[in-house]
Amino acid sequence: MFVPDQQENQISIVAGFDIISLYKNPDVAYYGATIGRFANRITKGTFTLNDKIYKVDINNGPNHLHGGNKGFHAVDWEVLEINEHTILLSYLSSDKEEGYPGNLQVFVRYTLTDNNEMKIEYSAKTDQLTIINLTNHAYFNLNGIGNGTILNHVLAINADHYTPVDETLIPTGDIISVKGTPFDFRHPERIGARIDNNDLQLKYGEGYDHNFVINKKENELALAASVEGDLSKIKMDILTTEPGVQLYTGNFMNGNTILKGSHADHRRSAFCLETQHFPDSPNKKYFPSSLLFPDDIYKSTTLFRFYN
Ligand code: GAL
Hints:
Blueprint lengths: L1 E3 L5 E3 L7 H5 L8 E3 L5 E2 L3 E4 L2 E4 L8 E2 L12 E5 L3 E8 L10 E9 L4 E10 L3 E2 L3 E3 L16 E4 L1 E5 L12 E2 L11 E2 L9 H6 L3 E6 L7 E7 L6 E6 L3 E5 L9 E2 L3 E2 L7 E5 L14 E2 L5 E10 L1
């Protein structure tokens, strides 16, 4: 994805690969991928629906992450429509795939709008009660991929609360105030300003790897976060209908993966803001529900809006 800076230079702001097979490599961390059937973590890969226990892949320590080894990032999607502005993709995830119940038909439409936005619209239908949580896992560096870390990017998150985690990055179930913590991004702040603070939550994530509770009404398309590249001055707003957004500051990037443009994936050289239902919500009574019933249609929209 290229965005012009103030001098009209086209800046490449999303990390990716030249070779398609690398996107599916299980050792490569979900670059630019559509994540499903359930984005983020599920405790011990277990959840219960209608008194029946379901087990999904355990692929991240003791937990399930991002849909399992053959999550939606690792499958072939069918192209239903394509033109200069939009591409519509679909995938049929069959009953019991990665352990999830129900045949789930998923559609994802990417659209470039006339307001300098990349819009992602998700929809899905199931034939059995199931769980769903879809997101996009783009890694951004608004100064340009390969142009240093993202620690001096300036970030604001429209969240008074976040969901703290345990040492395996599973939410404790609490929803706590960001006030007085390194998680307070209600006013714009450098991503790196407090990232190495002596804080147990930051230790667990090796930096930020946490879900923020966006200040919004249910299903409302609202501002989740705004980020500015300190060098390029490119700004990005993220708006979403989802209740949460995961800030992941590339803490596990380790320089071992070579990205498009021959740049290594150095630690914290990109960030992700993954709009989502809260992690482990199938096991958390007080989190917004991620259930999808056979008569319902799942719908979710996220917009990335750019300025220079
Ligand atoms: C993030 C997740 C991180 C890490 C990363 C991929 O979405 O929250 O913990 O797994 O994906 O490396």
